[in-house]
Amino acid sequence: MNVLSFSSHVVHGTVGNRAIQFPLNLRGWNVDCINTTNLSNHPGFRTFKGSKTDAATIADIFEGLVEIGLEYDAVIVGYVASVPNLECIADILAKLSYKPLVVLDPILGDNDKLYVDQNLIPVYKRILQDPAGLVTLTTPNQFEIETLTDTKISDWNSLTASVTRFYDLYNVQYVVITSVNLDGAMYCIGCLDRERTFAVPVDQVPAVFSGSGDLFLGLLTDIFHRTKNLETSLKHTVDVVQRVLKRTLELTDAKMSIGSMPYIPSLKLVESKDIIE
């Protein structure tokens, strides 16, 4: 199986494509990465060097893949560093002559905070609205689906309203809301359509991690491509990610914190190989 992944790259650490490629290689995928950044490490380390990839380079690299006849079973869109980059990726998706599984994580922010250029929001909206159905599955977190639907989620009824609004606005078949805090508990919400949703409870590991969303994105792409069953895929993905986070916490002497929680900027993926395979 072959997958093309658009996401960030760090030389040191396990975020972006570094958190997607190795797990998918373990699961039998050939992973081709187009990197939207080239950084020394994740900014969570508090200092980093490097730069964003320019859109012309992304377009040129993809054209090179086309010229040697490559086609992909799946396409992942993770962290996109700029509006020109996202517009370039949207153009690539629109020009594909075949229909792979396309999984897009509309990375905007978290915990009520936007941490990308706000001008990315309308571009994500256009991609998700495209009449051709460019995206098969999208994975916003609670803040991101609230931003995309202009609907604040505070209880189960407002969650339903946000999901309904999403399907009113966008042309995407499947939605996974990767983290929703309701009634003092955390859930992943899977949506098969506007009427059929389900909730998967998430045990909260007592730390803040970078890269967990990217690992989630890669694993969900894998199992959903294999099973075509969103509920089975989501339960499996949550289970594996939770076990990797627990292993990482056990093996890490956290030296940084966010609020009262230890902050771990790099997942222990090699050390979790037995969990991921």
TrEMBL record:
InterPro entries: PM/HMP-P_kinase-1 (IPR013749), PyrdxlKinase (IPR004625), Ribokinase-like (IPR029056). Coiled coil: none annotated. Pfam families: Phos_pyr_kin. The keyword ATP-binding applies. One of its GO terms (cellular component) is cytosol. GO terms for biological process: pyridoxal 5'-phosphate salvage. GO terms for molecular function: ATP binding; pyridoxal kinase activity. It is an enzyme of class 2 (transferase). It comes from the Eukaryota. Keywords: ATP-binding, Kinase, Nucleotide-binding, Transferase. Residues 52-254 form the Pyridoxamine kinase/Phosphomethylpyrimidine kinase domain. Its EC number is 2.7.1.35. Belongs to the pyridoxine kinase family. PANTHER family: PYRIDOXAL KINASE (PTHR10534). This is pyridoxal kinase.
